[in-house]
Automatic annotation (TrEMBL):
Residue ranges of the TM segments: 21-42, 160-181
Keywords linked to the UniProt accession: Membrane, Transmembrane, Transmembrane helix
Record domain Bacterial Pleckstrin homology: where: 44-142, 189-288
Protein name: Membrane protein YdbS with pleckstrin-like domain
InterPro entries per record: Bacterial_PH-related
Keyword Transmembrane: yes
Source organism, top-level taxon: Bacteria
Length: 290
């Protein structure tokens, strides 16, 4: 005859809500940043008017007054490039960077071999037009004109496919993990069948045969578990842990830290669970082990 035991109710904890909030916030920031970068790859453009240089990139337009420009020049080469903040792919670089030849610089760039550096009193900007010399002349003579980035926007857009795929994989993985953690206390069950114990976690069930068990007990081990792999949020413990006083090779599927039902296996593994009726669970297992 099968018997099902339900876990003890977990203690109230804001940890799980905090993990979900931080995870979703991080995903939102990543999606916004990626969307901005992809839009930059599609719509980047430089325009010179009699009063300013206008740089369209992503969701924003940067305007640099020509009266504030102190110098316009081109470096012979670029070495020691370091990204401080922003996007860096083979055909798109936006944000804060540092090179040996320029120092800190804000880039609205595609192919760096056409870099034009614009200095103002308190900042430095880098643009990469198709025709660098014509852009420099337009700035110096205040001649209106519109300039496309070198390499075009198509190649830059294509270069964003890899980070897009990475963010998509990260988003799916993070949502799956946080969702699994959220379902864990609701899905957790301990079932006694004719041949063994089945721990149902909402993912793959864990099965332990009665012939594998050496002993089972209710215990309150000294100390606290150290997570090796899995989840430890408040009183939710799921995965592999180190807890010498509980037993070697410890796996926990628990909704509280103490007391635990410890199932010691003949192969040296230990499983820790928290059925609400722990004494009745232990007695039922011992009867089935005979």
């Amino acid at each position: 005859m099968n018997e099902t035991f339900y876990p003890a109710q977990p203690a109230p904890s804001s940890g799980l809500k905090g993990i979900n909030f931080v995870t979703l916030l991080a995903l939102l920031v990543a999606v916004i940043a990626l969307a901005s970068s992809m839009l930059s790859a599609m719509n980047m453009q430089y325009a010179v008017t009699p009063e300013s240089i206008r740089i369209r990139s992503g969701f924003s337009t940067k305007e640099i007054p020509l009266d504030a420009v102190t110098d316009v020049w081109r470096p012979d080469r670029l070495t020691g490039g370091v990204r401080l903040f922003g996007t860096a792919t083979s055909n798109l670089r936006t944000g804060r960077f540092r090179f040996n030849e320029t120092g800190d610089i804000t880039l609205y760039a595609t192919k760096l071999d056409s870099l034009v550096v614009i200095d103002v009193s308190d900042a430095r900007y880098g643009l990469t037009p198709v025709d660098p010399e014509r852009l420099m002349e337009a700035i110096e003579t205040r001649s209106p004109g519109t300039f496309q980035p070198a390499g075009g926007t198509g190649r830059a857009t294509a270069s964003m496919l890899i980070p897009l795929a990475l963010v998509a994989v990260a988003a799916v993985s993070a949502l799956y993990v946080t969702g699994a953690v959220g379902r864990f206390p609701k899905a957790l069950r301990y079932e006694l069948g004719p041949d063994g114990v089945t721990i149902r976690t909402g993912l793959s069930p864990v099965r332990i045969g009665y012939d594998e068990l050496e002993r089972v007990e209710v215990a309150s081990p000294k100390g606290f578990p150290l997570r090796l792999y899995g989840t430890a949020v408040g009183s939710l413990l799921w995965g592999r842990f180190r807890w010498p006083d509980a037993g070697p090779n410890l796996r926990l599927y628990a909704t509280r830290i103490k007391p635990l039902v410890l199932m010691h296996l003949r192969d040296g593994r230990t499983f820790g669970i928290t059925p609400e009726e722990d004494e009745r669970f232990v007695e039922a297992v011992r009867q089935r082990m005979r």
